[in-house]
Description:
Blueprint: H1 13-48, H2 50-61, E1 62-67, E2 74-75, E3 81-93, H3 101-112, H4 116-128, E4 135-138, H5 143-150, E5 159-168, H6 176-179, E6 182-183, H7 187-193, E7 205-206, H8 209-213, H9 215-218, E8 223-229, E9 235-242, E10 250-251, H10 256-265, E11 271-277, E12 283-289, H11 294-299, H12 303-311, H13 320-323, H14 333-342, E13 351-353, E14 356-359, E15 362-365, E16 373-375, H15 377-383, H16 386-396, H17 398-407, H18 429-436, H19 442-448, H20 459-471, H21 495-510, E17 528-534, H22 541-546, E18 561-568, E19 575-581, H23 593-605, H24 607-621, H25 625-643, H26 652-663, E20 685-687
Parallel strand pairs: 2-10
Antiparallel strand pairs: 1-8, 2-3, 3-4, 3-5, 6-7, 8-9, 11-12, 11-19, 13-16, 14-15, 15-20, 17-18, 18-19
Amino acid sequence: MKFPGLKSKTLTEASQTLTFSRRAMVVGGIQGLIGATLIGRMAWISVAENEKYSLLSESNRVNLTLIPPRRGWIIDRNGRPLANNRTDFRVDLIPQRLVDADATIRQLAQLLKLETDDVDRIREELEKSAGFRPVQVADKLSYDQYAAISVRLPDLPGVAPSQGFSRNYPAGAAVGHLLGYVGAATAEDYKARRDPLLITPGFKVGKDGLEKTFDRPLTGKPGAKRVEVTARGKIMRELTTRPDSPGRSIKLTIDAGLQEFAGRRLATQSGSVVVIDCHSGDVLALASMPSFDPNSFSDGISHLEYEMLSKDDHVPLRNKTLQGLYPPGSTVKPMVALALLEAGISPAETVSCGGAIRVGNTLFHCHKRRGHGPLNMRGAIAQSCDIYFYQMAQRIGMDRIASMARRVGMGQKFDLPFPSQSYGTVPDPAWKERKYKQKWQVYDTVNATIGQGYMLINPLQMAVMAARLATGKQLMPNFLFGAPHAAPQPVGVSEEHLVVIRDAMNAVVNGGGTGGAARSSIPGVMIAGKTGTAQVRRITMTERAGGVRGNAGLPFKLRDHALFQGFAPFDNPRYAIACIIEHGGHINRVEDAPMIASDTLSYLFDPAKAMEKLETLEKDWGGTPAERQAKQMAAFRLAKAIEKGEAPPPAAPEAANAAADASAAPASAPDPEASDLPAPPGSNATDAP
């Protein structure tokens, strides 16, 4: 089989030239396109994106650092600082820039002589911190310490020393609950605001109290600093600096001297004092003790100190003035008497007190076991007779009493610049039906009329009640100095009735009543008021038969609360006050609510005399609150060291002496009202046999 032969293509020089030329044109076209693309891209980068890459280039050579703004001051009504700023050298760690965290912390601990507690805190905060959030190492450094860190920066990546300002609270613990404190922003804060200032080392935000409420106006505008650096980040020279703009100052109605005095005068007790100007409603003092030192929180509180505060049975971390709720006890009796007058009961009408009264099948006692005998309204308030109010309250009913309680401020929600507050309870038949689905009973009225049962109040509400009884006006508490507010409306009772109540409250203090300890030491100034005792436990029939245990023999948490509300001067009220001592039990006359209130009011009329007395008393209390807390911290640290085996236990004689010193407390005769006290919800009642 034969196949047809294939014709071979003849290659000529012309065909080869044509083929080469075509390929060259294609390659050249591709090269030209690539060249044009590169030229276009270079033109785009150099012209259209010139600014962008200039900034990137500049950022490689220059670092721009925000300078935290100085926080605005918080000042009192006279311009004295309650919270200001102090110059501060500090060192922070930036977690995302750390190379060897353990080695860096060890070197910093050696250079700055950090305590073990501080090192533990730094390690824990590093573990919890997001990469962008700075962790404080130390502040309040000396210049030598600051310089020692600065010269070693090339060997300490992630360490950020800075010179700035830190928050300072001159009065310390006395303003802890009032002002709150500042601290570093959290990851949640940054996610919510996306403000680069929040991740700037040294910048802090308000965390509690007024610092938190007024955080935005207190925060100024940050400054900026440009410095030239090497590729490794070493600073070569400073280029330009734009100064920061401080935040706006906040002026409060608080009197700084009175605030500090009230905090110190609460002595070793757990309680609060509130003082209100009867002319304007301005709050002059809002003290809650024991408290925390806001300087410690703002500087970064140690775990040991926080543990000590959180385990203290006097609850120093709770703002008792706004968040504490207490049965008001007999301090409500002037209010109840005002409701009786409005219901048409004559102040001259008498009730015979025999020491107890039966309501249904329940026996209710007066605080005076043998009774007071016949008493009119003035005498019943002065002697704090329970039987008088038991009988009269049943005649008018709870609705009238509850209405008057609300008019004088009990249970009222005030518009205050604080993150949280508790409002208390004014019970009535509708309230009980709504809350418990139960009918109101006569014994509920009997309990409520002496400030027990379901009735609750906070110290600020008690001070407002005192101010409204003193003036007959519905004064509203105010914290911002000069803030516009409407003229107060009248309480809605006749002046004649108010005169009767004020005269009876004057008799409580100056007419042989239960509040003699509140008598003023300032010549020409008379204090009117009402004492109160609120039980926190039920007294059984068996205990009454065998003898009611005194507060001095009870554990701290089972002792009665001691209360006082009043105003001064009696004949021309200018200041109203409320004082509540948690579990005070009327054990110590000097540290009881009436005398604390009296001394606090005396500061407003004669500061020098009041301070002289306070300084004398503090010698017996172990010094100022700051000095006592320092001793408490030292003892707590030692106890922890002994517990861990890091320190030997004290010798037996020393331990015995310490125990004896701790148990020794100045005592005095108990308040007459505390001798045989009515009980809390249902606890004032004794079941009949």
